[in-house]
Structures are given as C-alpha cells and as structure tokens.
Predict the structure.
Amino acid sequence: MSSTILVMDDDLLALESLESYLKQAGYTIVTASGAREALERARETPCDVALLDMKVPEMDGFQVAAMLRQRQPDLQVIIFTGYASLETEARAAQLDFYEYLPKSNWYDLLLPTVERVLAEPERRLPKQRPADLEKAAAQYIEEGKGELAAIALEQAARIAEFTHEWKTATRLYGQAFEHMQRARGLSVETQRLRELAECAQRIAAEASADSP
C-alpha cells in the first residue's frame, strides 16, 4: 500500500506539478489549495506526510501544520517555501518540522526528503499544540532567547485565534509582545504584536458581550 501525502499550495499550476511528480513516484496524493481545504482533506483522509506551502490564504503553513498535528500527532511535515528567511527558518526549527525546503530546488530535494521521512517512523514527535509551544517558549526564556519565545507564543496565539479562543489568544499575543519588546525594543515587529493583542482583546470582549 502506497503512502499518502497531503500537498497544499495556492498556486494551482505548482499544485498540479507536485501532484503529478509524486504520483509518478508511486505515492497517493491528496491536494488542497488553501488552509481550510487542507484541514478538511486531512480530516477525510489520514496522511503519512504533509507537504505545505508556507504562504497560503487564511493561515500560513506553520499554523496549518500545528492544526494538523493536533489531530494527528505523528504526522511528518515538510514546509515548502519560495520566501526563505532567517525568521522562517527559526520557526521551522522551533516547531521541529522534518524539513524546510526552498521552492527553487525542490525537484532535487523533494523525493529524497519524503523517502527519509517515511524511512524514519521512530523520529521523535514534534511540538504541535499550544501548550507545547508555551513550554517551548518557557525554555527559550530560560536560555535568554526572547525572540524565539515570542515566535513560539505568537504561533500558539494564532492557533487559539483560529479556534476562536480569543481570551487565550489575547494572553498569548500579550506575552509575545512583552518578550519581543525586551528583545528588540519598540520595533515594527513589537508594534505588530501589540496590535494583534489589542485586536484579540476587542474580539474577546465583543464575544463576551454577545454571549447569553
């Protein structure tokens, strides 16, 4: 029985190319062009590997991976991006994704990476839930890595936001803001986190007011 790979990319031509390429290699492929569709497809069909484009509407690939792993903790994830940066590499490492591939040379790297994923089922399980991300943030704080702690807390906040846990999102964004402020001062990134915290707080207040 062939292994099943979930492929998510909002570029339909790229999605078709990846689907054809992986099918020719003998894999069963489930495709999605967006975050919500990927979550729905994974609910319908358990997969062995998820190949996720980092930049898609609604959520980014990191957030989709975290949501998928709440349902299937042993799912291996390959983040696939044309927007490589030090920050995204840090997020990929912090979330313990199996691999982080640039789109520029995916043709050479993809199949060997998938094969390694499937050949190493004993690979340790990744951090995948908001609680795990908070633990990771606490560890980074102990190590004096405030920026990585802020990244982990923001990731947890976005998951809480997606599941409409607005009070939790407010708390996590607020903590991310505090750690980023200590690390970078009043930077653009710090201001962005403060605005996210304030937005989540407003939505939380509105939700409470609308509750019976």
In short: Residues 4-119 form a domain with the Rossmann fold fold (CATH 3.40.50.2300).
